[in-house]
Amino acid sequence: MKKSMNNIHDKGYKDLYSNEEVIFFVLLEFQSTVDYSMPIRLFFYISEILRREVDPEIIKAKNKNIKIPAVVPIVLYNGKKPWDAEVTFRKIVSKEEIFGNGLFDFTYDIIDINNNYSKEILLADKGEVVKVVANNSNMIKEMEEKAEIRGEIRGEIRGKAESLIRLLTKKFSVVPKKYEDNIKKLSEETIDQITIDIFDINSLSELDKYIE
After folding, report:
1. Are 13 and 24 in contact (CB under 8 A)?
2. Which listed residue, of 24, 25, 100, 106, carries a Cα 20 to 30 Å from 69's Cα?
3. Residues in the chain, pLDDT under 50
4. Cβ neighbours of residue 39 under 8 Å, at least 6 residues apart?
5. 146 with 123: CB under 8 angstroms?
6. What is the pLDDT of residue 188?
7. How far apart are CA 95 and CA 53, in angstroms?
């Protein structure tokens, strides 16, 4: 089923906390259907944002003062069925209970528009605006004006395609231009599926079944 909200955005913010500048990113995923693979998808996106945005000079091995920007994952959902997908990453890890605190983990915020929120609630105050983005460009504009948010919205389907190409390049070293061009033409649904399947893809030729 084609998603009616076909955008993913990551947006950088600068804010002041205790008179100190804080830089962080809000990762916004728009959904019109429940997606049970959401934790692993967001993990891939968070990794790509940090890989893209963090200066290699900052994360040198001998730097004791390594600090990276926070990435805050938020899913904005407007489907009729209540969102019942897992919101905590480690809960989708097999036998996670036996690994104690040794597992990587995060929890994403779910904004279930039809079941928990209304437009009026979302726009009620700056704190809530900073946490969420509404489900179309007009509401995004309203939120930015109200919260006086600075930054550039990047992404959409092309951003997903470019992130997938980076993941494939990391796995296979080189991705031929014909595959890059074809990936950029794929639907969001297909790009998401390849991203989910990437650990099971053993050769670039296996991408042909998604591209055909």
Report:
1. yes
2. 100
3. 1-8, 118-119, 121-140, 142-155
4. 85, 86, 87, 88, 89, 91, 92, 108
5. yes
6. 81
7. 33
Backbone angles phi, psi at 134, to 5 degrees: -80, 180
pTM of the shown model? 0.52
Please report which helix (H) or strand (E) contains residue 74, including its range: strand 70-77
pLDDT digits (tens, 9 = 90+) for 166-197: 889 888 889 999 999 999 888 888 888 888 88
Q: Which two tokens stand for residue 109?
A: 């915020």
| DSSP sequence for 98-163 | GGGGGS---B-EEEEHHHH--HHHHTS-HHHHHH---SSHHHHHHHHHHHT--S--EEHHHHHHHH
Tokens 């991203």, located at residue: 195
Token representation of residue 159: 């951003």
pLDDT tens digits, one per residue of 50-60: 888 887 776 77
Q: Is 48 helix (H, G, I), strand (E, B) or coil?
A: helix
Residue type, 135: N
Cα separation, 73 vs 131, in Å, equals: 9
